[in-house]
Amino acid sequence: MIRFAVSLCLALMLAGAAQAQAVRIKDLVEVDGVRANDLVGYGLVVGLNGTGDGLRNAPFTEEIMQNILERLGVNVTGEQFRPRNVAAVFVTGRLPPFARSGSQIDVTVSAIGDANSLLGGTLIMTPLNAADGQIYAVAQGTVIAGGVDAAGDAARVVQGVPTSGVIPAGARIEREVEFDFTQLSTLRLALREPDFTTAARIENAINRRVGQPAARMLDAGTISVDLRRTGAGSPARAVVAIENLPVEPERRARVVVDQRSGTIVMGEDVRISRVAVSQGNLTLRIEENPITVQPNPFAEGETVVVPRTNAGIFEEPGIGLAEIPSGTSLSEVIAGLNALGVSPRDMIDILKSIKAAGALHAEFVVM
Question: DSSP letters along 143-193, please?
Fold first, then answer.
């Protein structure tokens, strides 16, 4: 299965290498100022079926429960709670750009105490703060947990993560981010993958579309666009005019390997210099076969155990000394190794050795 996955990825790469595809500018860059903001809050989930926090182990749960009840007019000072149907949680969400008051966003709820499950629980009204300490949204609703927790007297089965869940459209925005996009005179485009060639191509595409030098490449990751020269009338119209322009991005030569699954992904521009490769596997095998020795009948003596050990070293078939000519693409090397029946694990070790020898001309990423 792993070898099939490697061969499939190689086939897809070779099929896509035949013709480079142009990509829209909006898929290559981020517009400076148009970004989401992270939100976080601390709240309480109630209505759990005996799977909540143990208040002796999570005193903060009792504290927040007292605060909520006192805000609702219930005096619980000095009272002792020991419910098992409440859990303290962190609530996280993202405030999207240009979000307006009254719109709703999704939130994630995660237990922070010793609760076993949040299945069936309801999040009580929880304010969500941004990094500036201001409240931007309020969350409340039924938690949808993505796991199963079943237990008996002597066994317990857990599937997934029942202590974390989501509330779709569970938070309502109460405050807007103060950012006037219409007052911008210069638009900055930030490349997701900084590259001088790609930035230059984006600059040329925008200037051809506008008809005058409105875009200017500042560095490998930034293009500045003078909105006054675009003739669009507003920053939003300018973004609409340029974000769908096709540009062929330049990619770095890169090899990515995942040691856990044996997956190898590579670009078409990866090249290998002239190098010789020899690979083999050694297996050490040790077997213990002790023998029990007993004295003859009616003879004096005692039963003893005599150790017997069989040890050996075996060399499995591997790759003999093979020379790879200069200018060979990595895809050709992988195809040859696949034809020889080399396992993905050994293939990754070979690629590491070629990179260490300085013959693999690409960025080597190991996950």
Answer: -EE--EEEE-SS-EEEES-TTEEEEEEEEEE-S-----GGG-SEEEEEESS
Q: Which of 107, 138, 173 is the last residue of a domain?
A: 173
Q: How far apart are CA 14 and CA 21, in angstroms?
A: 14
Widest pairwise Cα distance in the chain? 114
Domain that holds residue 350: 254-295+303-366
CB atoms < 10 A from the CB of 89, how many? 30
Nearest to 267, CA basis, from 193, 202, 214, 324: 193
Q: Which helix H or strand E contains 197, and what residues bound it?
A: helix 196-210
pLDDT tens, N- to C-terminus, the chain (367 residues): 334 344 444 444 444 444 557 889 989 998 888 888 999 999 889 888 888 777 666 677 777 777 777 777 777 666 666 677 888 899 999 999 888 999 999 999 998 888 888 888 999 999 999 988 899 999 999 999 876 666 666 666 766 778 889 999 999 999 988 888 888 888 899 998 888 999 999 999 999 888 888 899 999 889 999 888 887 778 888 888 888 899 998 888 888 888 777 777 777 777 777 777 666 654 545 566 777 777 777 666 677 777 776 655 455 555 554 555 665 666 677 776 666 667 777 777 777 877 887 877 778 888 7
Residues 189 and 88 in one domain: no
At 214, give phi and psi (nearest 5°). Answer: -90, -30
* Residue 105 CB neighbour total at 10 angstroms: 22
